[in-house]
């Protein structure tokens, strides 16, 4: 991408916070000024939300940039902050997790229960020889033991490396090998799509290729038969029998907390390293500020899997450090029926919901009548994360889920940033559908051109972060050079220009006329059409704004006349007829619709109507595979693809349409 992104889309709707929410908001507008005045002082105030065993001597040490140290000399225990201190404050009987299994079984876990289980698991891991600095792989379904296992590792200073429970033998084995894990914590299986889905056989195969693994700790969830080896131990025969007293030890603020591999949307996943004090400070602060949590009355639900960073920061560390009550759900949104999510919200009276655009668009496809059948009146705030949310999906979320008054917080962040970076503040910001709006207090995000110059309002370019932030990654596990090359060598000092270290996020963005930020997808995905840089996101949003479209993915394919031409893959809404001529007519209508919305330059050369799109396991569209199809190439790395049959269908459809 050179210079700027064309700015094709304009949005004029704004939605100010409801008056009552604004009046009682945890964080008010002053926070921005305070943080601007003195960023380090601001983060120091947020660190005081936590309980420290030893106070820090220095807020930030940036002398070895881009390797940061935050709260230097401070000491704390993360598990103590997420569990013990709430029990000590008299909240032991408060529900930490309302767990809902896919088959409809449920469990209630209080903070006292959590303390007992985490202490037992910490004692068991210690007996198994795990000590501070060791790595433990976690490969579990969405059951409370997943949170317990993570907190137990944190409690004894071992690093967890959570691997999504849907990943293959290879994906699990390479992640175990990359981090030299000593123990794997897994289960016999979990429930998915109405039946038990085994995990243990995958672990058995992976462990056979991983000599570093000494023990495999197995939770019994489905009760299905498993093959038993000499490294295997049942969770209920070890952890649940262990001593439930465990004294947490304080660790250095920069003690490593976890390794987490990125989603793999753009290529080979990177083992992102996070540490203790700064990470928890920002995870805890942002959860409080952006979800406006009132721990006494709110019920929060994040639909992400614990295998993604969203599950780390906003199922485990953010909510639990705030003493929140949350829902955890094991299964898929359409089992046993397509109203399952709304049923759960109704059942637990969920007030704060955090989900992903992919799910919102799926719900749009399924139809408005489904959420309408449930009582969603408990919801008072809605969040979105993972991809840009198209303005029409945002509106659908607001109208059909948020009964037209719950504010939506569109939160931009990455595995690398550890916690939210750009988002509205629900009690302050008048939000625009599709925009993540402004950097949070204490965060300095900017949109720049090729020369790292800030673009004016109305301009587009690269999203960068100009100042270090507490929950920033401390590196890529075992590969400092890749860390520097990937994030710090595009702009600023790392590129040999000036004295400022500038973090390159890899995402395109624009500032609208009011200075609000719009995320426009991956820089690698930007299309160059007849000399114009056009973002995939804007064309996709134009398609989704048509009433017949639920979801769209757009790529630039080589074209003899225009350099690249736009090829769009579009999923129609459930009630739309696409058979024969009706399909052809819709395609023409959609091409014209995009041209009308964004200008003739953005008119797609080709539109294919498809039933599904290729997505990562975390639900993000993998445009690079669609580009391979559009350009008639064999497919690149598909290991993080959710469903490989999707690509066969799309490829054969593409051949027919030629
Ligand atoms: P990889 O780095 O391996 O390709 P990934 O980037 O998909 O994988 P994550 O760290 O899970 O892995 O995702 C972060 C990315 O998700 C961001 O860089 C951005 O592209 C996208 N993203 C997350 N939240 C938002 C949001 N609110 N708006 C727009 N994009 C978002
Ligand atoms: Mg990424």
From TrEMBL:
Post-translational modification note: Acetylated. Deacetylation by the SIR2-homolog deacetylase activates the enzyme.
Domain AMP-dependent synthetase/ligase residues, every copy: 89-477
Record-listed ATP binding positions: 386-388, 410-415, 507, 522
Enzymatic reactions: acetate + ATP + CoA = acetyl-CoA + AMP + diphosphate
Superkingdom of the source species: Bacteria
Residues that, per the record, bind CoA: 192-195, 310, 530
Enzyme class: ligase
Keywords: Acetylation, ATP-binding, Ligase, Magnesium, Metal-binding, Nucleotide-binding
Any one GO molecular-function label of the UniProt entry: ATP binding
Record flagged with keyword Oxidoreductase: no
Family: Belongs to the ATP-dependent AMP-binding enzyme family.
Role this protein plays: Catalyzes the conversion of acetate into acetyl-CoA (AcCoA), an essential intermediate at the junction of anabolic and catabolic pathways. AcsA undergoes a two-step reaction. In the first half reaction, AcsA combines acetate with ATP to form acetyl-adenylate (AcAMP) intermediate. In the second half reaction, it can then transfer the acetyl group from AcAMP to the sulfhydryl group of CoA, forming the product AcCoA.
Protein name: Acetyl-coenzyme A synthetase
Lineage: Bacteria, Bacillati, Actinomycetota, Actinomycetes, Micromonosporales
Gene behind the chain: acsA
């Amino acid at each position: 991408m050179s210079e700027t992104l064309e700015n094709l889309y304009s949005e004029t709707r704004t939605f100010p916070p409801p008056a009552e929410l604004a009046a009682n908001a945890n964080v008010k507008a002053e926070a921005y000024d305070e943080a601007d005045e003195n960023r380090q002082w601001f983060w120091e105030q947020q660190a005081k939300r936590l309980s420290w065993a030893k106070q820090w001597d220095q807020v930030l040490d940036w002398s070895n940039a881009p390797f940061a140290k935050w709260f230097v000399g401070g000491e704390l225990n993360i598990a103590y902050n997420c569990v013990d201190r709430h029990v000590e404050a008299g909240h032991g009987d408060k529900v930490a997790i309302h767990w809902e299994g896919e088959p409809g079984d449920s469990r209630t876990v209080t903070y006292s229960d959590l303390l007992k289980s985490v202490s037992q698991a910490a004692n068991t891991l210690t007996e198994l020889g795990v000590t501070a600095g060791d790595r433990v792989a976690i490969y579990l379904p969405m059951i409370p033991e997943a949170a317990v296992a993570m907190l137990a590792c944190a409690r004894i200073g071992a690093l967890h490396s959570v691997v999504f429970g849907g990943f293959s033998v290879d994906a699990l084995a390479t992640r175990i090998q990359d981090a030299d894990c000593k123990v794997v914590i897994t289960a016999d299986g979990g429930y998915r799509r109405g039946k038990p889905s085994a995990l243990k056989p995958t672990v058995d195969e992976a462990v056979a290729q991983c000599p570093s693994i000494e023990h495999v700790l197995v939770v019994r969830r489905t009760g299905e038969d498993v093959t038993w080896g000499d490294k295997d131990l049942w969770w209920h025969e070890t952890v649940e029998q262990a001593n439930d007293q465990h004294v947490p030890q304080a660790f250095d603020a920069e003690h490593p907390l976890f390794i987490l591999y990125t989603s793999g949307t753009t290529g080979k996943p990177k083992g992102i390293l996070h540490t203790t004090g700064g990470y928890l400070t920002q995870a805890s602060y942002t959860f409080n500020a952006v979800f406006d949590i009132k721990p006494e009355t709110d019920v929060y639900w994040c639909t992400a899997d614990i295998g993604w960073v969203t599950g780390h920061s906003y199922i485990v560390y953010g909510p639990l450090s705030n003493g929140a009550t949350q829902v955890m759900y094991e299964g898929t949104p359409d089992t046993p029926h397509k109203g399952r999510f709304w049923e759960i919200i109704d059942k637990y009276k969920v007030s704060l919901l955090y989900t992903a655009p992919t799910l919102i668009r799926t719900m749009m496809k399924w139809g408005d009548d489904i959420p309408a059948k449930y009582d969603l009146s408990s919801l008072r705030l809605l969040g979105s994360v993972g991809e840009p949310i198209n303005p029409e999906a945002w509106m659908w979320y607001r109208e059909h889920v948020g009964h037209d008054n719950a504010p939506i917080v569109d939160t931009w962040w990455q595995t690398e940033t550890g916690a939210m970076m750009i988002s509205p503040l629900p009690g302050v910001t008048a939000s625009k559908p599709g925009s993540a709006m402004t950097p949070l207090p204490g965060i300095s995000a900017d949109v720049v051109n090729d020369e790292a110059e800030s673009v004016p309002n109305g301009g587009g370019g690269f999203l960068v972060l100009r100042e270090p932030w507490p929950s920033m990654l401390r590196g890529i596990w075992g590969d400092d050079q890749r860390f520097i090359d990937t994030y710090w060598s595009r702009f600023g000092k790392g590129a040999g220009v000036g004295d400022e270290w500038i973090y390159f996020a890899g995402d395109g963005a624009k500032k609208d006329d009011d200075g609000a930020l719009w995320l426009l997808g991956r820089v690698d995905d930007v299309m160059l059409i007849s000399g114009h840089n056009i973002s995939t996101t804007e064309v996709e949003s134009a398609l989704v704004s048509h009433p017949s479209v639920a979801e769209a993915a757009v790529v630039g394919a080589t074209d003899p006349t225009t350099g690249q031409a736009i090829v769009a893959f579009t999923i129609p809404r459930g009630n739309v007829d696409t058979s024969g001529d009706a399909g052809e007519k819709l395609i023409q209508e959609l091409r014209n619709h995009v041209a009308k919305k964004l200008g003739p330059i953005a008119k797609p050369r080709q539109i294919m109507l498809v039933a599904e799109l290729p997505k990562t396991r975390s639900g993000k569209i993998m445009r690079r595979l669609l580009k391979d199809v559009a350009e008639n190439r064999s497919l690149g790395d598909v290991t993080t693809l959710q469903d490989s049959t999707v690509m066969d269908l799309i490829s054969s459809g593409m051949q027919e349409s030629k």
